[in-house]
Structure formats: structure tokens, C-alpha cells
Amino acid sequence: MPERPPVSDRPVKIVLIDESPVRAAILEEGLRAAGHDAIMLISDHVNLLERIYAIDPDVILIDLENPSRDVLEQMFQVSRAVRRPVGMFVDQTDAVSIDRAIDAGVSAYVVDGLKKERIKPILDTTISRFNAFSRLRTELEQAKGQLEERKIIDRAKGILMRSKGIDEEQAYALLRKVAMNEKKKISEIAQSVVTAAELLG
Amino acid sequence: MSADRLKIGFIPLVDAAAPIVAATCGFAADEGLEIELVREVSWANIRDRLTFGHFDAAHLLAPLAISTSLGLGGIRASLAAPVALGLNGNAITLTPHLHEELLANLAPRANPRDPAATGAAFAAVVRARRRRGDERPTLGMTFPFSTHNYQLRLWLAAAGLDPEDDVRLAVVPPPYMVDALRSGHVEGFCVGAPWNSVAVDLGIGRILHLGVDLVRRCPEKVLAVRSAWLDEDAERTARLVRACVRAGEWLDEPGNHAEAARLLAAPHMLDVPEPLIRRALDGRLPTGPAGAEREEPDYLIFARGGAMRPDLRHAGWLYGEMTRWSQAPEGQAGDAEAVYRPDLYDAAMGAAAPDVSDPLGLFTG
Hints:
The complex is a heterodimer.
Chain A: E1 14-17, H1 21-33, E2 39-42, H2 48-55, E3 59-63, H3 69-72, E4 85-87, H4 95-104, E5 106-111, H5 116-164, H6 168-182, H7 186-200
Parallel strand pairs in A: 1-2, 1-3
Antiparallel strand pairs in A: 3-5, 4-5
Helix pairs in contact in A: 1-5, 4-5, 5-6, 5-7, 6-7
Chain B: E1 4-10, H1 17-24, H2 27-30, E2 33-39, H3 43-51, E3 57-61, H4 62-70, E4 79-84, E5 87-88, E6 90-94, H5 96-104, H6 115-132, E7 138-141, H7 147-158, E8 168-171, H8 174-182, E9 188-192, H9 195-201, E10 206-210, H10 211-214, E11 221-226, H11 227-232, H12 234-252, H13 257-265, H14 274-282, E12 284-286, E13 293-295, E14 300-301, H15 312-324, H16 333-337, H17 342-349
Parallel strand pairs in B: 1-2, 1-3, 7-8, 7-9
Antiparallel strand pairs in B: 3-11, 4-11, 5-14, 6-9, 6-10, 12-13
Helix pairs in contact in B: 1-12, 4-15, 5-6, 8-9, 12-17, 13-14
């Protein structure tokens, strides 16, 4: 392996292994904003170890939903091909960081010789970006759900307007009244109306 | 009395059956335990979550429990195995092409189930490739500290091959194993049930050996806990051991195999077709096309013959493999064996240890 300057004098080389391209992009953007330019993304599991050896990174970040984590464990065995990495969890006294990382769903492998002060901000950015992605995903799912509810309510209103000869406002008021009486959501009542119409129609 | 709640992590493999059955068929409830099962995607995740207290107990590779206690991976934590989760269950599968190449090199009238014969034939294939300047074959296994790794090395070394130089041994997570075989990234692998059968059914793999051809009674997974967890409540450990052993005894009954297969096949459990699981439980495995089949009652043993009692000689053998293959330094056999806790098993079961004169039944070449 060619001689390289010690890691304290040059940018930290980061490999990011994530099968979610959106999350990877969010994290990459965060790390770049924090001044890290040497970021390489690996989004599949083919020849993973060889590709990592070729890049020879200082830090490897991998999402915990990724079965390839076990492939990385091989790095502890093969010291011939790569500088010996150590797991993030080697600092077992830092239980708070460990819990935060596991909760966020990410794990980091760090090579020997990289100072704790340099790892900590990378890890903090990673954890906060992973958490941001989770929130984004939750919000997206909620938004999708709300859109579906709106569509169902519109269909139910249409059915009521046709069958009862009422206008849109009256149809909505009817749905709301039934929902209040039955202590259910308007969308649930709307779904019943649509289902009934399909059965009877 | 309210039940003690335990969280147990598992990898979707047939040998996770004992804790799964204990949790879902009433054996845990009989012991006043309520078990929440958590499916995981990697052994590294299981190890970390067990170590950091997210799990009370975990389905874990026996050698990984030992290596974690010795601090051989990225992490050191004192783990204990009060109960083993059975014996055996692995197989070596090759691509149809490599399988045919190997059989073509088999000595006349040699028994294809004899690892010495298949090893010699494989060595001939490896040498022929080297003469041609072709790449050495890559074989997949599931984890550096795994019996899959050691069984492959046992077979290769007995044939005079150097597992480091004559082949390439690569970790491939079980769910990617079949894909790696199809795409040619590996030409064979050693893995547990049901993955060998998945490859055979897709027509992309042929089973060369069952694990028992190499090791008659091979330690495989244990139920691992943190050593400190044991101290919190000794009676809780005993109840957990009994629940798993009762589940193992239930699993050994052929009459229960249909129900067990149905249970394990569920989407939140192993999520593979029921018949593939049934084969492993019955010990009747198609090995290739055209009705080729092996019937081997010991293919996967749960509790039979004291198989769930942690045997110190198993821990000793696993540690010996770690030193043999430069994974562990010499001189820690005592610490390695201390991970296995037959004393806790005996205390829980209140029975004398079974007399197993040859605990491993190793193929010696």
C-alpha cells in the first residue's frame, strides 16, 4: 500500500453504504455542508469488500437494515489488504452515542488512528440526517394517507349528491353528522358509503 | 403473578425454531415468560443489540458468542450460553457447473458423500484452474466466526488445500447467498437451512454435502445472554432454558413438523415457503434435479440426545478452530469454554448430563 499522510493532516475519506438513495443523498449533503468532500456512495452489495479495499476509507457508514453489515465484519480478519478498522462501538463507555446511533439505524466503522474529535461530528451529522430522513418518510406517508382520505370523501360526496339530489355542502354536512353520531372519522364513513355503493351499484 | 417479559433477537433461519416455538406455542407461558421476538438482518446487529441491552437474549452463532466474549471482533462483552439451540443443519452447495466438474474428477467407485473423495476431486479442479491461469473459486460463508467457515476449512484443509490461498472464502449474508450463486459471485457456499434448498429448487445449486458428512454433531447456534443478565435473576434463566428445551423436544417430534413448518414460514418469521422448511425438519432434502435426494435424520437436531446441553468440548473445538485459522491468540481456551454454561442447563433441567462419548464426530480426512 502506498504511503499516505497521516489521517490527521488530510480530509477524512468516507464510504457510505445505503440501499436507500434518498437517505444517502440527504446524508451526503449534510456531510458536504460540514466540509467533507471525500464521500463515496455504495448502494448495492456486489463485491462490497473489494470495493471498500480499493477506496481504502477512514470511515464507513452503513444503515442497520443492511445485511451487508456482516460482510464488513470480515475486515477485522483481513489485515493484509486494508488498514485495520475498528468498530464505532469500541468506545463502549459512550453508551449515549451508541443508543442514539442504533435508534437512528446506523453503524460506523472507523480505522485506527482517527481522533475521537474528528469522528464525533461525522457521527452526529449522520445520526441527525438519518433521523431527519425517518421524519420525512413518516410525513410523506401521512401526506399520502391524507390524500387518499380526501379522494374517498370526494367520491362519497358525489355518490350522496346523485342519490339524494343534494349539493356538495349538504353532502359533506351529512357525512360529518353521521361521523359525529357514530364517533368515527369522516373518511371512515365515506369509505362505508363508497363500499356500499359498489355493492349495491 | 404477571409474566416476565423478555425480548429475544433472531435471524430468519430454521435453527431459530426453538425460541420461536417457545414464544408462540405456550412453552414460555408455561414458565411464566412472555417473549417478544425481534427479527434482525445481520449477526453484527444481533450481537450489538444483545451487548447493549436492547435484547435480553439472542439466537447467536456459537463461535460469535465466544469471539465476542474474547473481544476478537470490534467489541468485547462477556456473553454466556445457558442453552444450545440444537446441532447441525448446514450444507455445502455448488453451482451445477462446479458440481459436475467435481464429480468428473471423482475417483472411480468413490463415494460422493465421502468428504475425502470430494475434497480430492475439488483439489484437482482447483489445480487445473491454476494451470490454466483461471481465477480461484470463491466460496461463500455467513460470518467469520461461524461453523460454516470452519466446516468449509475442515473440508479444504483435509484435501491439502490452503483455505486462504487456494480458494477465496467470502462472507455473504444468507439472504444474498442464492443471488450470489446465480450471478456467479460465488461458485458454492456453506449455509444453514433453508438456503441450500432454495438454491436447489431454483435449479442454480446442487447440495454436495450435508454438514453431518463433516461433523456428525456440530455446534451451531446458542441462546446467548449477557453474563451480567444471569446475575439479575437465576430463576428467570432456568425458566428460559426449560422453555427452549421443551420447544426443542416438541420440534423433534415428526408429528409436529407440519405445524412447525407452517409457523416458521409466516411472513414475520422466516418468510420462506413452508415445504422448504419442512424438508429441513424432516431431514429429507432434494439435492439436485431428477429426484436426487438425501435422507438424513440427523441433518438438524433440536433437543434429541442432550443436543441442547452446552457441551464444553464444543466450545473447546470452536476455540481451537479460531486459533488454527489465526482468528484468536493461543492460551484463552479456559475463557472460551467459560461462555458455555452446562451448569445452568443442568440446574434448570434437574437431570444428569447425558453420556456423549464422541461429542463432535469430526471427519478427519
